[in-house]
Amino acid sequence: MKKVDSEVKSFLGIKSLDEDHDAIFNYIEQLQALVNEPKNHEYAIGILERLLAFFLAHVIKEEQQLQQYLPTNIVKEHILQHQDELDYLDESIISLKVKISSNNIQTIVDQLNQEFKNHIYRYDRNIMQKIIKIQNSKH
C-alpha cells in the first residue's frame, strides 16, 4: 500500500503534503525541547506563531488539492477539522501569552502531538484511500 500511496501522491501532485506534515512535527519537537529550559520559554510563543502561519499555508494548499479529487462533503469535513486545529493553535498562543510555564508548554505539546498524529495517520490516510479508490475507478 505504501508504494501505491506514494505513486498516487506523486501522480496527484500532493507528495509535498507529507513534507509539510514532517515540518509540523518538527515545530512540535522544537516546543518539546523548550519544556525544561525556563530561560527559553518565551521562544515557545514564536514557535507556535510560526507553526500557525505554516499550518495555515498548508491547509490552504491541501484543501485546494483535495477539492480537485473528492466530493464537496468530504472536503468540507476536512475543512472543519482544519479550523478546529487552527483555533487550538490560536488558543495556545493566547494561553502562553497569559501564563508561560513548563506545564503549559507540555500540555500544548501533548495536545498537538495527539491531534496531528490522529489527523495525519487516521483522517489523511482515509482521504488518500478515497482518492485512490476514485482514481482506480476511472481506469
UniProtKB/TrEMBL annotation:
Record bears the keyword Metal-binding: yes
Pfam families, per database record: Hemerythrin
InterPro entries: Hemerythrin-like (IPR012312), Hemerythrin-like_sf (IPR035938)
Gene3D superfamilies according to UniProt: Hemerythrin-like
Sequence ranges assigned to domain Hemerythrin-like in this UniProt record: 13-129
GO molecular function, one term: metal ion binding
Record keywords: Iron, Metal-binding
Record family assignment: Belongs to the hemerythrin family.
Protein name: Hemerythrin-like domain-containing protein
Organism per entry: Colwellia psychrerythraea (Vibrio psychroerythus)
Upper classification of the organism: Bacteria, Pseudomonadati, Pseudomonadota, Gammaproteobacteria, Alteromonadales
